[in-house]
């Protein structure tokens, strides 16, 4: 078990829930981590797609329903606490909100709120990753997401009757 | 152990080694899988960066030295054989060859050769994923990789003294 476990990594998925009309982004504070604003998200269930995990975690944590649009960025980090000595792959999905009212999961969160994207860019409170992704989204809002999005397509697998999701730029 | 193992996935990393002058791509046939042409690659060592894994696996399998350029695409697939019941994340890295002579690892491979990109696009022998990535690379060759590449940057982590790699479009 140890040998194959060394090959594994801990993927987690976040929703960058952006209301394009107001320019506001859904941010949360995690009760079980250092108090800081971050995107809602969490771990996948076995067999769950990236996009499904992000949508599910956003709803469970904040009550907001959202739809998958694209992937904006993904991170690889080694040597992190809370990660069972694995490296992580943290994927930020761009989601479009379908509902806006917040129902905050008090078991998981300290707080959640809609925050203007400029606040992420100007306030020192936010992480380098949040600022970097906010800058990407700002470009999408001011120009177009066509140049920013990593899009999802479904292709036939080499394994009969199965498909897979591929994330890349349009060609 | 079982509980946290359910959260893990099996990442693997391939090199799309493209010689931009000749338009040729390095392809291999894996001795231990169904005989088909695919990109050289394999699993990460614990704590190894995406880019390092792709470069190392290409060298170990084919003897070709290459440099990381970008990520072209990544796949998520569930229910695959040889994956310890994990879903996979398979990342295709665009690499630039520094050497071209092949030293084929006979333990791992049946064959390896430089193949023109058009052959990937026209011959029925190649998988949907190889064709999709070849189309992306063809766009990069004929227009520019600026619109195709998912680029890597290194950012400060929230964990003191650490950094992480972020993969996204330039903003």
UniProtKB/TrEMBL annotation, chains A, B:
It comes from Stichopus japonicus (Sea cucumber). Gene3D superfamilies: Nucleoside Triphosphate Pyrophosphohydrolase. Its main location: cytoplasm. May contribute to the regulation of cell proliferation. PANTHER family: NUCLEOSIDE DIPHOSPHATE-LINKED MOIETY X MOTIF 6 (PTHR13994:SF46), NUDIX HYDROLASE RELATED (PTHR13994). Residues 8-142 form the Nudix hydrolase domain. Belongs to the Nudix hydrolase family. This is Nucleoside diphosphate-linked moiety X motif 6. One of its GO terms (molecular function) is ADP-ribose diphosphatase activity. GO terms for cellular component: mitochondrion; nucleus. PROSITE patterns: NUDIX, NUDIX_BOX. InterPro entries: Nudix_hydrolase, NUDIX_hydrolase-like_dom_sf, Nudix_hydrolase6-like, NUDIX_hydrolase_CS, NUDIX_hydrolase_dom. It comes from the Eukaryota. The lineage of its organism: Eukaryota, Metazoa, Echinodermata, Eleutherozoa, Echinozoa.
């Amino acid at each position: 078990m140890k040998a194959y476990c060394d090959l594994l990594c801990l993927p987690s998925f976040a929703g960058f829930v952006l209301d394009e009309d107001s320019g506001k982004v859904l941010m949360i504070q995690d009760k079980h981590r250092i108090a800081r604003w971050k995107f809602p998200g969490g771990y996948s269930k076995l067999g769950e797609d990236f996009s499904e995990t992000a949508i599910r975690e956003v709803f469970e944590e904040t009550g907001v329903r959202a739809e998958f649009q694209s992937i904006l960025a993904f991170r690889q980090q080694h040597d992190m606490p809370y990660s069972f000595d694995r490296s992580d792959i943290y994927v930020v999905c761009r989601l479009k909100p379908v509902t806006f009212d917040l129902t905050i999961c008090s078991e998981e969160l300290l707080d959640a709120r809609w925050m203007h994207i400029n606040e992420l860019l100007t306030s020192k409170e936010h992480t380098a990753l949040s600022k970097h992704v906010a800058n990407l989204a700002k470009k999408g809002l001011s120009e177009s997401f066509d140049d920013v999005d990593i899009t999802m397509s479904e292709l036939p697998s080499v394994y009969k009757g199965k498909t897979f999701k591929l994330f890349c730029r349009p060609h």
